[in-house]
Structure of Pyrimidine-nucleoside phosphorylase:
Amino acid sequence: MRMVDLIEKKRDGGTLSEKEIQYIVNEYTENRIPDYQMSALLMAIFYEDMTDEEITALTLAMANSGEVIDLSSIDGIKVDKHSTGGVGDTTTLILAPLVASVGVPVAKMSGRGLGYTGGTLDKLESIPGFQIELSEENFIKLVNESQVAVIGQTGNLAPADKKLYALRDVTATVNSIPLIASSIMSKKIAAGADAIVLDVTTGDGAFMKNLEDARRLAHTMVRIGKLANRQTMAVISDMSQPLGEAIGNSLEVVEAIETLQGKGPEDLVEMCYALGSQMVVLAKKAETLEEARQLLKEALDSGAALEKFKEMIRNQGGDASIVDEPNRLLTAKYEQALPAKQSGVMTKLVANELGIAAMMLGAGRRTKEDAIDHAVGLKLHKKVGEAIQEGDALLTIYSNTEDIEEVKALLYQYIEIGETGEEPPLIHEIITE
Ligand code: URA
Ligand code: CA
């Protein structure tokens, strides 16, 4: 097989066979195909697209390019959840203990943030003592004993994806539906999931800026999940404004605790029920989404989910007493309100730029090497569609420097107050096939 012939085939709109795709992924991972040829193929895929069979072959080849985690010694159906990215997305912190408390085994490997906001690992590390590095043996033991553990992704998971993503990043080929779908699904499959729930975000703060693209990505991932023998469902959720009220690592842990105490913001709670009920159905702990939602609601109302979160923190070496006193996590030196300059209705709260503002405070990374300040971030007091009086606090800025004029200016630029505005739908669609 020659790479140049395969590039030509894709360039001319042909379909690559499973063997050809395996060859490309193996040879590229082993550094036997140079970046310039791979770049040409990526661009051809960008323009010519791929069939479901090609995407499935690409997904499996990338999943098998490194370590594949074997979770078969854990009883039950292991369901993983993945979000295609958002701002202030606290759902994993809530869902892991919530679904575990109704008997769904959660063996979750999470990443740090790809973009400029902290990832689940960064959030968990704002809990004093919490260990995100466990041996695979210990990880499996915890899930068997306690139904839940959340750890960092091991270094050798889907190395082909890691190498390809870096190349896509510098060749303007990230934004391709077959490439995004295979990238995400390869990591989920390598992490050992039997079933997968996808949160495909759409809007300013997401990869997919419009609903039509989000729908295509969601359908593609659900189809290839099935072709790869992993039951898969998806929710298309709105990311035009941030989810919940907290953006920033400690602030989001506090928000997760409050949600598990039954005091969470309405949108975040609803998102957790929507995604959580899919997880419960895929794990076969309920027959219908409605029945699953009822189980989750009972676990939240009874305090079982909150207790499970404490157990998870304790199991992973963290200080579980913060669950009873979450305000101990709020250690930023300064708290300043951002007052509304006029009365009206909030019409825009642009997720992307709110994420950037939180990063500027230190809640996220500008470069991969940056350290994170867990204490800082934003707490929203008003969301799109809410009435506002001049002088109302739109949000509170938690910072460790007094000089935040630049952040305030950015926030004012991307928060719009107008005459009429409607709350956007939280969930656009639920895709089960
Ligand atoms: N997230 C991923 O993991 N891969 C992509 O290609 C895009 C988003
Ligand atoms: Ca949030």
Notes: The pocket of calcium ion (ligand 2) is lined by residues 88, 90, 243-244, 246, 252, 255, 268 (CB under 6 Å). The radius of gyration is 22 Å. Residues 211-227 form the longest helix (17 residues). The domain at 331-418 is CATH 3.90.1170.30 (Aldehyde Oxidoreductase; domain 3).
